[in-house]
Amino acid sequence: MDKQALHDALDAQYFGLADRLDGFQPREGQLQMLHAIAETLADADFDPANPPQPKVAVIEAGTGVGKTRAYLLAGLQLARARKVKLLISTATIALQEQLMHKDLPELAKASTEPFSYAMLKGRGRYVCLLKLEAHASGQAQEEFDLGDAAQQGAAEADAAVFQKLQRKLQSGAWDGERDSLDGEALQGWGRIAADRHACTGPACEQYQDCLYYGAKRVAAAADVLVANHDLVLASLRSDKSALPSGERAIYVFDEGHHLPATALSHGASETVLTSTAWATRLERALAAAAAELDYPAEGMPDGLGPLREKLGQLARALLDAHSEKLQVHAAGGSSEPMRVRLPQGKLSEELRDFWEELHQIAAGCESKLADFSTWMRRKRSDEPDSAAEVNPHLLAIGPQARRLTELVETAELMLDEGAMPPAKWFDFRAEGGVVQLEAKACPLFAGALLQRNLWSRLRGAVVTSATLRALGKFDFFLRDAGLEYVEGTRTLEVQSPFDYGRQGRFIVVATQASPKDPAAHNRECGRLIASDLREVQHGALLLCSSWVQLRALVDAMPPEVRNDLLVQGSASREQLLRRHREAVARGQRSVLVGLQSFGEGLDLPGTLCEWVLMPKVPFANPSDPVSEARSEWLEAKGRNSFVELTVPATGVRLNQWAGRGIRSEADRATLVCYDPRLASTPFGRQLLAGLPPFSKLLRRGGKETALEEGGG
């Protein structure tokens, strides 16, 4: 590809927008990003005859750069030239909606070359019309006959909800997607969601009206696809992907800092050891299908009975082994589950024997079940008239088959005792006087998963976000995302156009109490934060590191301040944001109070957020079992987990929190962190240096002085 011609064409398109797009103003950073993408992807080889040699542009674009328009313009130009699609993947629904309802329509209207666009979500985000009909009519009630009374009652109550949903769908008041629901309708979603295990595809009587396949058909014809990281990672591993392969699309990952966490969620698995009713339901469903369809008895899974027995034995052994600790935990009144992690991922001989037997039995059942499912699908294909017989059985077997697959995958992870064993733990959860026991496992790092399942399958990609660097470097993200050894990776930092030194102040408060003494520090922070909140005229954001801290600080606020707090959990996020905007519009003080989910992705420009208050440096939860296992593995290798993992991850999170303050060139904000370690420790000064160039101050004894990042 002639690079100069490509850059010239992009310049012509970019500067031509000034005549075709209202309010468009060229931005230096946006143009820099656009050309960096073109320079990287111009070298990408999309020929399927050649082995993949991915070219990846990793770009941190500060707030205000306009990264969306940059990657859309560059991506479209390159996609047209290579005759491939452009796929945009995001981490949040909010950004997907923004792309579909704002960014893409604006660009399509202003573009000299027309293009089409569509959004595709994972199958499970769409309702299954057959399941909805079955649950609304009560035909699926037998699925819950083996459950407890509470479950049976819940299923009966849900029937009315499903009937209401069915009416809304038929009238056009609901689009059939999970993301359009809230409240009680969401609670029963798992029963009516489409899923691959139960889906009968083109043979389904509802195929022509199926919302998932309808969206898939629209997406197949579109030039630009909008998806999410979860769907991309699931689809690229599938032989029947709903998304274009790496040879047929340029992939752009916006909110790319979420990729490692998404990959870990795909690599993780869990199963409930104390629940075996699904195995009985599966046994019944299989027997009914085999009897009606004349399937040979010798081909049926015969291990479901022994599987139930073995699961019960394992659950009893674990409950007996930890009964005393469980009693102490219950006496403490904690609503959190009691967690037992396996150090170094090592199984005792007894546990290993249990998991080996479970895996052998479950894998055998899964194999025979797969053969039976294949036979049913083949029968339906060879004998079209049999679809009415076969489809209900596939629908009944599907949800239980998923539980069997989860058990096999969990057992495989539990038995992995290689050079880097997964994190492995058990959650004991008391519910209504009964203990539910869950076995969980998760790989330690996402890099190898992403390298194997993503980058090795792509030809050209862009990863972008406002927070990809940690402590001023890309190293942590590249390692975490599996890009460290991808030769075609290029990195770029595009500076925000904001004048942070003029627009924002970052104040470090030298508290007397140490953050390592949470009770004393929370008491002092309560007084200091209340004092600062009295200075707030419009909107503010108080970001806490834990629920314990949040509750302590809210309780410490005097009534005249507490009345202005909008606390996470007291209503939905959307409701809280609406109340916040309304209060600020009325000229009242309003303070949003929340945890990490409020520290990322909130766009509160102007007076909606003039203060950002952070009681502590936002370290991740140290008791998270995956974080614990990672640190343990590194320390066993003689490495420093605090330096390699904790500090960089905290740097990213602190940047995200600080990014809530300045959202436009007109904004002014004061950011306050009540953690003296930012000024008094080497890691704190590293974190401070990695922030945007705010005017940085140290407040000690009520007096504020300029803070030099090299020392406190």
Automatic annotation (TrEMBL):
Arranged from A to Z, the UniProt key words for this protein are: ATP-binding, Helicase, Hydrolase, Nucleotide-binding
Q: Give the E.C. number(s).
A: 3.6.4.12
Q: What is the protein name for this chain? A: ATP-dependent DNA helicase DinG
Q: Which GO terms describe its molecular function?
A: 4 iron, 4 sulfur cluster binding; ATP binding; DNA helicase activity; DNA/RNA helicase activity; hydrolase activity, acting on acid anhydrides, in phosphorus-containing anhydrides; nucleic acid binding
Which NCBIfam families does UniProt cross-reference here? PRK11747.1
GO terms for biological process, alphabetical: DNA repair; SOS response
Which PANTHER family does the protein's record reference? ATP-DEPENDENT DNA HELICASE DING, DNA REPAIR DEAD HELICASE RAD3/XP-D SUBFAMILY MEMBER
Reply yes or no: does the keyword Hydrolase apply.
yes
Q: Sorted alphabetically, which Pfam families does this protein's record hold?
A: Helicase_C_2 (PF13307)
User: What are the Helicase ATP-binding domain coordinates in residue numbering?
Assistant: 16-318
What species does this protein belong to? Azohydromonas caseinilytica
